[in-house]
Specification:
Belongs to the short-chain dehydrogenases/reductases (SDR) family. The protein is of the alpha/beta class. 41% of the residues lie in helices and 14% in strands. The protein is built from 7 helices and 7 strands. α1 packs parallel to α2 and α3 runs parallel beside α4. The N and C termini lie close together (11 Å). 42% of the residues are buried. The chain binds NADPH dihydro-nicotinamide-adenine-dinucleotide phosphate (NDP).
Length: 245
């Protein structure tokens, strides 16, 4: 059990990149990181959604965010290198990354999954995170302390029928987190994963259309652990597969 005590401004001075910041858990995380003092970089596919998150943060009087529209399905290594250079030029370093954006695909029998769908899921949920992390490591090293948080799932820890490529991608995400945590052990960068648990978002609605969303945990409810893992109160946590609920 992690003891959480997120004090006011515990993220002040930090620059944190959030992928999938235009909706659901990523949007809530971006707003909460800003609330606790961070300058956030909002990355996502749909510019209008990122702008809506931006507007909300500015309206609340939190530090002004930056926006990076990027489709993780089509992004190249060069896109990530350019992104890292822009972040370095603007902020000088990067203190945190929340790898949150994901593609669910369609829940269906393994035998019926199309090559196109599997390729898209692996690209968005896995390859993009690999390339992005590789490109960002030099600027994460420039931060006094840095936290990289991968987003897993229950089906990333126990395989489940019909969750196919999504489930496999989340297992691989856990693997990437473990490799990095071991490789960078005893450095200033830490790597962990988090399983949000059932949370009321568009993705959850698509996966479980019959569920009553209002009865589910809301994205804002799970934010304390996300804030904790980005703050210097969690410097001793590395290589952990954590649960938000
Ligand atoms: P949402 O569907 O609400 O949000 C997903 C986000 O990912 C959106 O901002 C979306 O952007 C972005 N995204 C999807 N595809 C791409 C792409 N190709 N390029 C860039 N951004 C993209 O989902 P959640 O908030 O529920 O999910 C957040 C994370 O939590 C995911 O990793 C998910 O697997 C995980 N999770 C969620 C659970 C839940 O119950 N909600 C349970 C377990 C894990 P856009 O809207 O512009 O497409």
């Amino acid at each position: 059990m992690i003891e959480i005590n997120n004090t006011e401004n515990c993220l002040k001075g930090k620059t944190i990149l959030v992928t999938g910041a235009g909706a659901g858990i990523g949007k809530s995380a971006a707003i909460h990181f800003s609330k606790f003092g961070a300058e956030v970089i909002l990355l996502g596919k749909t510019t209008a959604k990122l702008e809506a998150t931006y507007d909300e943060i500015v309206k609340l009087g939190y530090p002004e965010p930056a926006i990076i529209p990027l489709d993780l399905n089509g992004a190249t290594k060069q896109n990530y290198l350019d992104m890292a250079n822009t972040i370095k030029d603007t902020f000088g370093k990067l203190d945190g990354v929340l790898h949150n954006a994901s593609s669910l695909g369609t829940i269906m029998p393994f035998e019926q999954m199309s090559e196109e769908m599997v390729d898209e899921i692996f690209k968005v949920n896995l390859t993009s995170q690999f390339k992005m992390t590789q490109a960002l490591l030099p600027i994460l090293k420039l931060a006094k302390t840095a936290s990289v948080l991968f987003t897993s799932s229950g089906v990333g820890r126990k395989g489940k029928a019909f969750w196919g490529a999504y489930s496999i991608s989340k297992f691989a995400t856990e693997g990437m987190m473990q490799v990095l945590a071991d490789e960078y052990d005893n450095t200033q960068i830490r790597f962990n994963s988090i399983n949000p648990g059932a949370t009321a978002t568009k993705m959850r609605r698509i996966a479980f259309p019959a569920e009553e969303q209002a009865k589910l945990t809301q994205p804002d409810d799970i934010m304390p652990i996300y804030i904790h893992l980005m703050s210097d109160n969690s410097l001793n946590i590395n290589g952990q597969a954590l649960n938000a609920q």
